[in-house]
Amino acid sequence: MNTMLRKSVLGIAGLAVAGGLAAGPLNHHEAAPGLSEAAVVQADKPDTAKLIPHGVQGAQSKIDLNDEQTANAKAIIAATKKAGLPERAAVVSIATSLQESKLENLGHLGDANDHDSLGLFQQRPSSGWGTPEQITDPEYSTLAFLKGLKQVDGWQDMPLTEAAQTVQVSAYPDAYAQWEQQAADIVAQHWNS
Q1: CA 76 to chain centroid
Q2: Positive or negative: CA dihedral 118, 123, 126, 128
Q3: Cα distance between residue 85 and residue 81, in whole Å
Q4: What is the mean pLDDT of each run of 10 residues along the chain (193 residues)?
Q5: What is the pTM of this model?
Q6: What is the Cα–Cα distance from 39 to 30, expressed in whole angstroms?
Q7: Rounded-to-integer distance, Cα 71 and Cα 161, Å
Q8: How far apart, in Å, are the Cα atoms of 107 and each of 72, 99, 112, 124?
Q9: Residue 123's beta-bridge partner residues?
Q10: 80: Cβ–Cβ under 8 A, 6 or more apart, which residues?
Q11: Spatial distance between the Cα atoms of 172 and 47, rounded to a whole number of angstroms
């Protein structure tokens, strides 16, 4: 093959490859076979700006979660979705539960108990949160917390600790802030799983 013809063939082949790359799957967001466009979008993790819109406040704490704690975090996320609330509500809920119970569904702790506080959010039957059986049900307790959160005007625009404190009325109102990063990480990991 002469040099001129060879360069032409290689040039055309190069254009075909470059054209295929420019117009091929790398630049198109097509769903994989058998998946809808929505399924592809849901595989993405939530946007950090939605999870922590104000940035974290103060020093952050973190604990390693066991299977039970992870299951409880997933239950909080599922209840948040059931309530029709965004990822930020799940972050506030999980951070609150991390502070109140370390994501453990606590029963009555006897003399170590804070009054009659129970469950993931340490809600009290005597304060109208529900029966002990209801409060120790992760879905119920989360929905009860979220009902309180929805009643807080502008909770979406508040720092996490302020939103959580308005619902919980804790003796330690600033303590929720230390769990914001871990709560956001949990939501990012499990929101679409």
Answers
A1: 9
A2: negative
A3: 6
A4: 44 42 40 45 66 88 97 98 97 97 82 73 91 95 97 94 93 91 97 91
A5: 0.74
A6: 11
A7: 24
A8: 14, 16, 11, 11
A9: 118
A10: 87, 89, 90, 93, 142, 146
A11: 29
Q: What is the DSSP string of the chain?
A: --HHHHHHHHHHHHHHHHHHHHHSGGG--PPPTT--HHHHHHTSPPPHHHHSTT---S--------HHHHHHHHHHHHHHHHTT--HHHHHHHHHHHHHHHTT--B---GGGSSTT-BBTTTB-GGGTS--HHHHTSHHHHHHHHHHHHHTSTTGGGS-HHHHHHHHH--SSTTGGGGGHHHHHHHHHHHTT-
**Residue for token pair 């499990």:** 190
Region label for 108, one of left (φ > 0), alpha (ψ between -120 and 50) or beta (otherwise)? beta
